[in-house]
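Example 3.2
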Amino acid sequence: MAKGTRKGCLLGALGVIALYIWAFYYFFVGPTGFRWRALYGDAKYPQGYEIHGIDISHYQGIIDWRRLKANALVDGNPLRFVIIKGTEGSSRIDPNFIDNFERSREYGFIRGAYHFWTNSSSARSQAYHFLDKVRLEDGDLPPVLDIEHVPKDVSVQDFQTDVLTWLHIVEDKYHVKPIIYTYYKFKKKYLSAPVFDDYPYWIAHYYVDKIEYKGTWKFWQHTDTGQLPGIKGNVDLNVYNGTYYDLLQLTIGRQKDEPN
């Protein structure tokens, strides 16, 4: 074998090894902070919280709601709430949304629905798409905006204006402050303007004993590798930062009935 060929093979092999190392870090360590801890043994639940819930989409497939309601416990506590993916962008609807939305209420869960923000559609078109496809009722959680990405060609100030456009349109419909879902570093970097502190937060921060976000928050998504009866594969697990009574008071209808 020629020397140049051997050298090329060696470099190729080293490249493959480097790619595997990068992939392992990126998918199992880097973005989630000690994701590897969830791969071994039982899940480690955050301490001091009694109100647990899940968020779901078509990725969870067909859910056995009867089994989920009867047997699902998180750290010895029953599931209280389910937040369901409704829409994405200005045209997509989650294929399992209607069934999940109806069944979650049928089986006695406090339900909610979220919109997944994309940078390829205007804030206004996304807001009206959500309102057209998702019909929240009294007793449901406030609408949720799931926002995780910033367009590269838009300033932070303009991005914040777009986010507020979505929030204001949806708030005008339901007369409650929508919940903002994001990960804690994104909140600090892109949603740090004081106006956003008026909204309830749902913070994603995985595989840590204590959430590092220092501001006020309502929900904490602490893992994306939960395992529960009635759901095949992994599911996101969340805690609510308060009592069951507080959670009920957050719902649509309860907020409207509160005195000013």
